[in-house]
Amino acid sequence: MQKLLIKGKKKLSGIIPISGSKNATLPILAASIFSQKVKIENVPFVKDVFTMIELLNFIGLRIKINKKNNSLQIINKKNVLNSIAPYKLVKTMRAGVLVLGPLLARNKKAKVSLPGGCAIGTRPVDLHLFVLKKLGAKIKIKNGYIHASAKKGLRGCKIKFPSVSVGATENAILAASQASGKTILLNCAIEPEVKDLISFLKKIGCRIISKGRKIEIFGKFKPVEATYKVMFDRIEAGTYLIASAIAGSNISLLNIDHKIIRTELKILKLMGVKIKTFKNKINILESKKIKKIKITTSPYPGFPTDLQAQIMVLMTKAEGVSIIKENIFENRFMHVPELKRMGAKIEIKNNTAYIQGPTNLSGAEVMATDLRASVSLVIAGLIADNRTLINRIYHLDRGYENLEKKLKNCKSNIKRI
Q1: Pairing of strands 318-325, 290-291
Q2: Residue-wise over 149-170: b if at least 16 C-beta within 10 A, else e?
Q3: 3, 38, 189, 200, 334 from 229: Cα distances, Å
Q4: pLDDT at position 229
Q5: Binning pLDDT at 50, 70 and 90, where does residue 330 land?
Q6: I want to staple 101 with a disulfide (CB 3.0 to 4.6 A). Which of 122, 153, 175, 234 is the partner?
Q7: Is 221 exposed, middle or buried (0-12, 13-18, 19+ CB in 10 A)?
Q8: Domain 4-18+232-416 class, CATH top level
Q9: Pick from 233, 276, 271: which is nearest to 252 by CA?
């Protein structure tokens, strides 16, 4: 099994190009089930994206991969697609459930395995099923599979989400885009990746009106051929922002719309990180003194749960006690025991972490438990004394494109063994 070996205490400098968004690409790929022919650009070739490509191939789409320019061409010449998304292709990836809405809307039936992914919480599919039932689907869960049917097709209606959910909002938009009549969704997620999905659907011919947490979808659209460029990965950008703040002397991040990550930039500046923003670029200069802060994770435009583990490492360098309250997932502090093995002083009470700083971290053998936790250990390794060995790095490969190459280009001592 592959591991990452990092020798820390090296000041980093250089340029890091930010890849396309994994979390935007996956629902856009699910939406391509409706299209006849579409080209998607700025695709990050990470494990989750390859898994979704494999799933779409299984369903019956033809996909041409161009790694040189990070693009995909998707062609659908079949009138009837396979309605099954098997366990072997969904077990490692939460986003696999996003094919449920499109398959059901297109084929009037779908059989999709209950999804897997990171072990950071229950993340039930209840809200996905709640929406599809409202649209007229009959749902049964049997032998680990969701069996959905709508013999007369899905019907548009008015739906209010009982709580904000990115995945359920995306599945609702996808299903409603081919339901008869108009669907009104209330209390929707407004993450940039949801907006990117809406932009893609508009590009291929769907009529959607989005305002605040309200989305109106006019169904039964006829798809047209299109080329679409996926947005930048704001979580990857945030990860390298934090890594640069803690280990960098002068690093430039490219391909960024800084307006989308206003909250993250504001918090880092409050912590004393020196940041300069340009049109499509951010410069991070060496920050001598990091200040303590209190953060609560929340849906966009709040501070993202996907950056909680990373910023916790930065907090180990702050003067005094910093606090993180985790409001999204109930099991997202699994990286804490590994950081403590490296010398971090962290105490957990219920859903709140208290981080005492400043602390010198020392290299150790540690284990990645989920995607974002794994990259927090990489960040810790960059500043730790001696060597850090990270096990189970397949988590990293699910969501970070060319991580070692990007860090090596900034003079880090990191290698895969």
Answers
A1: parallel
A2: bbeebbbbbebebeebbbbbbb
A3: 33, 11, 21, 9, 35
A4: 98
A5: low
A6: 175
A7: middle
A8: alpha beta
A9: 276
pTM, rounded to two decimals: 0.95
Per-residue pLDDT of 345-404, as tens digits, reads 999 999 999 999 999 999 999 998 888 889 999 999 999 999 999 999 988 998 899 999
Side-chain half-sphere CA neighbours of 114 within 13 A:
12
Which sequence positions are flagged as catalytic? 118
* Cα–Cα distance for residue pair 183/153, rounded to 1 Å: 14
Q: Cα–Cα distances in Å, from 247 out to 255, 382, 410, 414?
A: 21, 7, 10, 13
Helix/strand/coil for 333: coil
Q: How far apart are CA 334 and CA 329, in angstroms?
A: 11
E strands, 286-386, in order:
290-291, 294-296, 318-325, 345-349, 352-357, 365-367
CB-based contact 48:95 (threshold 8 Å): yes
For 212-258, the pLDDT digits (tens) are 999 999 999 999 999 999 999 999 999 999 999 999 999 999 999 99
Cβ contact 91:65 at 8 Å: no
Q: Compute the average pLDDT of residues 262-275.
A: 97
Ranges assigned E (strand) in 56-194: 62-66, 71-75, 84-85, 109-113, 138-142, 145-149, 158-160, 182-186
Nearest to 236 by CA among 94, 92, 44, 416: 44
- Domain locations in the chain as residue ranges: 4-18+232-416, 22-229
Query: What phi, psi does 89 have (nearest 5°)?
Result: -100, -10
Are 4-18+232-416 and 22-229 in the same CATH fold? yes
pLDDT at position 118 over 70: no
Residue 246's nearest CA partner among 10, 408, 415 is 10
Q: What CATH class does 22-229 carry? A: alpha beta
What amino acid occupies position 404?
Answer: E
User: Distance between CA atoms of 113 and 109, rounded to whole angstroms?
Assistant: 14
Alpha-carbon span 166 to 187, nearest angstrom: 11
Cα–Cα nearest to 47, from 98, 92, 4, 2: 92
